[in-house]
Amino acid sequence: MASQKGHVVEFTPPHHSDLQPIELVWAIVKGEVGRQYTTTTTFPAVLTRLKRAFNNLSESAIRGCMNAAEEKVHQLHTIYMPLKAMLKLATHQTTTVKVLQRTTN
């Protein structure tokens, strides 16, 4: 549906919540709400605290979550590109060996 409206849909690998800024935001909110928990806390109180925690999120906290995710993507890219080049080279070398084997047989 999003791509039909002209949006680019990007998928991230499963189990990598550190690549999802919203997961980092949730961690902040859950920490805020969790620190207020007592044995007498009710579900309505949790809902009120959740709303308050989201409303109190600062722009800098949200930017920090986005920057942290971007930095992680950059780190992974730095690792991935040399691996991709090595795989391409290894594939080329394997293909060359197979061609040479066919021509010598």
TrEMBL record:
Q: Which GO terms describe its molecular function?
A: nucleic acid binding
The record's InterPro entries line, in alphabetical order, gives: RNaseH_sf
Name of the molecule in the record: Tc1-like transposase DDE domain-containing protein
Originating organism: Aphanomyces invadans
